[in-house]
IS110 family transposase
Amino acid sequence: MKNTIVGVDLAKDVIQVCITKRNKVLSNKEMIPSEFSAWLATSNSATIVFEACSTANHWQQLAHSYGHDARQISAKLVANIRQNQKTDKNDALAVAQACSLPEVKFVSGKTFKQQELQSIVRIKELSVKHKVAVENQIRALLLEFGIRTPTKGSIVNVVELTLEDADNGFCDELRDSLAIAFNGYLDLVGAIKKYESALERVANSNADCRKLMALEGVGPMNAVNLYMLLSCGEMGTFRTGKDASACVGLTPIQHSTGGKAKLGSIGKHIRNHSMRSVLVSGAMAVCSQVKRRVPRTTKETWLKGLIERRGMRCAAVALANKTVRTAFSLLANDTEYKAIPVAS
């Protein structure tokens, strides 16, 4: 199957497989997952391109195990290439056509180990969202009865006192419902701590993550995120640290026309906003410390000057940008990070 390109459109129950060779469609048929797995095992080596989606990593790993050149391609690019109406056949054909574009950028996908790490991160993120939602609802419901909770503190003491107060007029049904919601909140808090402990153990046991945690503002969570991004190119194959930083959304949006380039903001709509959020949060913590004391390293000297000129938020984004670029260099060159102390 030399020079054969196979475009694959993945779905839960069926898989559309479009086989092309020298810009001609040989077949474009639907398979169930077991049929496609058997086809991968029995077919000669070919270039198989999957539209990046939730199951693409599994199929890419399986195709690699059978000797195929398996790749993933952006779903947005496929949508731009697709002709006529959106059907499985047209999608599979568009995947194969997109693969033939000059200088096309593929999504490298993840290894099995990286999928495990991503699953822990995603479970933790969902638990954090649920915890915030439950906490906000409890705060709002108590406020309707004139019971105020600390704006930035924990709601635990206030809710416990409310449940124990027999003179507040709450009926038994409301008291039981509030107790159930509160117990669910406590369960989420405990679960988040367990997820954070699991990520910390993973980061400490991984040599690359330990390198990354030497960077300013990088803890276990940021180290795992950077490891997943840079070690295999989660959002693309990066040639430079600048490409990786731009992919996370830490560089200004550029608009060029007529030989004139204009730089805007870093943009609100990016693919992985949660990664950017935790990176900037870590950088903000570093900025808060540097602002209150004398710089100890050359990077802190640069950072403090930037804080004085542009403010905390801009400095935090700039530090997060530098962190991603430095992390790329550390992993690409297999080096250790050493901060340069200020000359006395």
Summary: The radius of gyration is 25 Å. The mean pLDDT is 89.
